[in-house]
Structure formats: C-alpha cells, structure tokens
C-alpha cells in the first residue's frame, strides 16, 4: 500500500502517500472530504505537485490529485477552468483567443488550483492580475465562491484559500492581439528553455524574491552553484533552482535548502523565505 511521491511530484522524490486517489468531480471531492472527516484521516489535495517537497516519511491518510478536474473553456473575455487544468494550457488558450495579461506566465508548471493557491507568477505578471473568482469546498464540504476582492493576496501569497479544496476559477481579460500575445508567449518559453534547468526534476524557484533583489543572485554571489547534498544540487544553470540530479531523497533536498539559507544569510545578511511547500514530517 502506498504510492511514492516520485510519481506525483515534480521533484521526483519523497515517501509514499498512504492512500492516493483522483476524484473526478467537485461532488466526489465533497464526499471524500466528508469520509476523511468521519474517519479522522488527514486529507492532502495536490495538483501537479510542482511546488511541494514531500517528506521521505510520506503522507499519512488520503492524498487526492485534482488532475481529473480538467474542464477549460473561453467565452467572450472570460476563461473558466477547473482546478486540475494545467496552468500553461489556460495561458496558451488565453493567448490564442487574444486575451492578454497572463502570457508572461507561460511555462509555469502546475495546475490552475495550485497557481491560484500561491498567486503564481513570472516576469511581472501573476495569477491574481486576471482572477475573477475561485470556487472551492469548505470544511463542511459546501461549495463556496469567493470574488477576488474578498481574498487577501500579495506576492506569492494568498490568505484563506488553504482552508478550501479549490475546484474551479474564472479569469477576466482585456482584448488583445493574438499574434502579439502568442509571440510574447514564445519568447517567454524560449527564455525559460535557455535559463532554467528544465532537463532535470525540480520544483521551480525554491525561494521567494527578497525585497529589491533576487534569490538566485544572492545564491550565486555566495558561490553556491553546484553545491550538493546527496543527489540534490543547486543548479549550475539557475541558482534559484534545486534539482534532483539522480536519486535525491527529500532529506537531501531539505538539507540543501537549509545549507543555502544559512550560507546566504552569512554572506549577505538576507534571510531567504521558502516559496515551496513542505508536506509531511521533516
């Protein structure tokens, strides 16, 4: 029994989920949530597992993936997507439809639910720029809708959404030129290919951007590119990434994160804040 986290996270590391399921609708998520409450079992909900590190001890209880919540559609200047839709599929559709404002977030790995949950962004654009509303299940399994104005949010941060199982979201856009937007999207994807270690498992940027600086610059300045713990390494290509260079455990990655934070603090005085989410016991 148990499904290794290597199978459902982009780090390709971590212990097993005790029970792994993939509900196909908001109603099935509501039933699952009620069942877990009735049986006093923890419930962890994940999209693409692209911004998390799962402990080598695994995840107790039930882990539910949102991948089957996959409906995506555009009507006028609005796009509506279920939580399991790949974020990049939503961005591509917006560019194709001439809907501007998220094209610079092209290539961000992860799901719509995950992007909303952490207000994901890149190159000066972020999820909440275009968010209209989000739907989710509350602790009692009721479907609720929150308008953007009712969700406190900031850079890579939202407040209150961690109490919901996110099921869908809608985004409103200004009309733009699809040719221009698709060209912008191509440039962003090409830049990612050149600058980021997309050939190795990672979970994207490890740390939030510090005020007035960049985590990658501070890590590079501290001479930490290539620093390794076991199979985990600070990327030689982009110091803001930790990569699984082969056989890395979650403990390797966690220990490397701690080393990077300590050495950047010693070198620059800056306390790097973790952007990635730790799941399980570390």
Number of helices: 6
* CATH architecture title of the largest domain: 2-Layer Sandwich
Count of the separate structural domains? 3
Strand order of the main beta sheet, please? 6-7-14-10-11
Q: What is the helix/strand order? A: EEHEEEEEHHEEEEEEEHEHEEEHE
C-alpha-based Rg, rounded:
19 Å
Estimated structural class = alpha+beta
Strand content: 25-35%
Largest sheet: 5 strands, antiparallel
State the distance separating the first and last CA atoms: 22 Å
What does this structure look like?
- The protein has 282 residues and is an alpha+beta fold.
- It has 3 domains: 3-65, Uridine Diphospho-n-acetylenolpyruvylglucosamine Reductase, domain 2 (2-Layer Sandwich), CATH 3.30.43; 72-180, Uridine Diphospho-n-acetylenolpyruvylglucosamine Reductase, domain 3; 199-279, Uridine Diphospho-n-acetylenolpyruvylglucosamine Reductase, domain 1 (Alpha-Beta Complex).
- The protein has 6 helices and 19 strands.
- It has helices spanning 26-38, 87-96, 112-118, 178-195, 215-221, 250-268; strands at residues 3-4, 16-21, 43-46, 52-54, 59-65, 72-75, 78-82, 121-122, 125-126, 131-137, 143-147, 153-154, 157-158, 165-172, 202-205, 228-229, 232-234, 241-244, 277-279.
- The strands form 6 sheets. The chain has a 5-stranded antiparallel beta sheet. A 4-stranded mixed beta sheet has the order 1-2-5-3, with helices on one face. Strands 15-18-17-16 form a 4-stranded antiparallel beta sheet.
- Strand 6 and strand 7 form a beta hairpin.
- Helix 2 (87-96) runs antiparallel to helix 4.
